[in-house]
Amino acid sequence: MTAGQILLLLTLIAPVAGALAAVTLSEEGDLGARVLGTAAAAVAFVASLLLFLDQSPPALIDPDPALPHGLPLAPWHEINVAWVPGLDLRFHIGVDGISYPLVVLTTLLTLLCAIYTCWRVPEPGRGRHLVALLLAIEVGIVGTFLALNLVLFFVFFEVVLLPMYAVIAIWGGERRRHAARKFVLYTLLGSVLLLVGVFTVVASAGTADLVSLTAGAGGQMARGTQLAAFVLLAIAFAVKSPLWPLHTWLPDAHTEAPTVGSVILAGVLLKMGTYGLLRVAVGVAPEGAARVAPVLGVLAVAAIIVGGLVCLAQNELKRLIAYSSVGHMGFVLLGIATLTTTGFQAALIGNVAHGIITGLLFFLVGAIKDRTHTGSLEELGGLREVAPGLSGILGYAAIASLGLPGLAGFWGEAFAVVASFQRGGPLWIVLGVLAAVGAALAAAYFLRMLRQVTHGPPSPAVARLSPAQLARAEFWSWAPLIVLALAVGLAPWLVLGLSVDPVQALVGVMGQ
Question: Cβ contacts of residue 434 below 8 Å, gap of 6+?
Fold first, then answer.
């Protein structure tokens, strides 16, 4: 077993071990359990970083003789062993330039949330259980990004469901159970469609291996089968992303979830949908993707415009950030829908930038609500007069999210619009123009939010705040995201440079 393969396993095993260790400790050792869980998250994060050191594909353990060699999807590190021999299922995981940034983002955000819980655990306490659930969610998300077998992908995709339900239902706000049930019902709908889509692909192509499917095995399916498979997979992933009009569970889930739940939900859980759409749906059923692309483009722009207009009317801070995610995911979908190299790159960097910036925004909104006990824009105001540090970081995150050049949010939106114009034709040019209008709407609602929250005389809720400095745990939870928002904005090649070859391979599958 190579060092890279050990690191792959470690990114999955470390959080599993940490979760098990956290829940087995007694209630008296709650803080120790949270520290132990944080240490496990740190091990997974370091292991994910080290995956970058060697990008040469290794020799497989127990390679599948049915797989051809020299395929366009060439993972840096890969494990492919028999899993359920009787059903010809294999434990096939790997990482490449498309999945690597999302794996690192997942392990980073989980670590930051674990650090945060060492300082603050929302009611009703039981911090060791909260940390264990966060680590369980990490296993599901990282496994989804690493899976190179469709059945294994489905299994990891579903692992996330129950732990996230518990996080919302136990540690959420007043309407937490309603929000948790809504999250589960929508996600179960997507899961059923995903299962049917996976069965359709495996039954038609004769393999569940994503490497073979993206190398051409998927393209051998009949045109009608490809179309059916792509529609099923696309709707399933649209629910998870969530993409308009299947987004209505998201604002409730974000509003009621605890701070760490919102950070994980917005930062990486939503990316499972857009990643699956790009890696699985487009890669496996390219002809189906080509036929449905105009519809996806229209829905993407509708999400951008509708999300922006709803944000302009929002008066609750967490719901505003939640609806902004609908618009940002619309830009990601628009990039994918163009089926071009520039569009795929826009989707990848848009995913990463949204995870960084929105994760930071939900940390900040949580800090404001914890201090003022309200998220209503009408009850907030004058934050910069009482807590200038918190106000300044909120302003930084907001302008990063609205797409200011030089910060991470700019590249995904800009590339998506450019890709739409590159695709050409009246429809795509109109979509590009409307998407640019949507970007202007984002600037309008974020500047409106800043004016109401940070400017003017302090409101009664804000005036009650003490001018104390930010807690050390808060600083360490936010600082990496603050730095990354600037680093990715100034050096987008940190993300885009990794994905050149796999993106070219995907475009090659599309025949463009």
Answer: 301, 304, 305
| Alpha helix stretches (DSSP H) within 339-425 | 341-372, 383-386, 388-401, 409-423
Name the residue among 193, 192, 227, 221 with its Cα closest to residue 207.
Answer: 221
Distance CA 310, CA 314 (A): 6
Distance between CA 433 and CA 441 in Å, rounded? 13
Could you give the CA distance from residue 163 to residue 373 in angstroms, rounded to a whole number? 26
pTM, 2 dp: 0.90
CA of 483: how far to CAs of 24, 146, 357, 397, 493, in Å? 36, 26, 10, 11, 16
Question: CB of 471 within 8 A of CB of 382?
Answer: no
Which has the closest alpha carbon to 137: 284, 15, 54, 255?
Answer: 15
List the structure tokens of 507.
């475009």
Q: How many domains does the chain have?
A: 1
- Tell me the CA distances in angstroms from 493 to 77, 215, 411, 412, 489, one per residue in order: 21, 26, 11, 12, 9
The Cα–Cα gap between 197 and 200 comes to 5
Which band of pLDDT confidence, cut at 50, 70 and 90, is reported for residue 325?
Answer: confident
274 alpha-carbon distance from chain centroid: 8
> Is residue 207 predicted with pLDDT exceeding 70?
yes
- Say which residue the tokens 């590249």 belong to: 411
Token look-up 């674990």 returns 114
Q: What are the Cα distances from residue 143, in Å, to 100, 182, 236, 241, 477?
A: 12, 24, 18, 17, 24
Q: Which of 82-86, 118-122, 254-258, 262-266 has the lowest mean pLDDT?
A: 82-86
Question: In terms of residue numbers, what domain contains 291?
Answer: 3-510
Q: Within 13 Å and on the Cβ side, how many CA atoms surround 359?
A: 35
How crowded is residue 155: how many other Cβ atoms within 10 Å of its Cβ?
16
Q: What was the pLDDT predicted at 17? A: 93
**Which of 419, 99, 510 lies closest to 279 in space, CA to CA?**
99
Extract the tokens encoding 53: 């050191």
Residues 399-426 have pLDDT tens digits of: 999 888 999 989 999 999 999 999 888 9
DSSP percent split of the chain into helix, strand, coil, nearest 5:
75, 5, 20
Structural contact between residues 135 and 107, judged by C-beta atoms closer than 8 angstroms: no
Single-letter amino acid code for the residue at 257? A
Nearest to 118 by CA among 42, 34, 40: 34
Q: In terms of Cα–Cα distance, which of 294, 284, 189, 279 is closest to 229? A: 284
Nearest to 205 by CA among 195, 213, 193: 213
Closest by CA to 88, choosing from 66, 61, 112, is 66
At 147-186, the pLDDT tens digits run 999 999 999 999 998 999 999 999 887 788 888 888 888 8
Tell me: the pLDDT tens digits for 136-148? 999 999 999 999 9
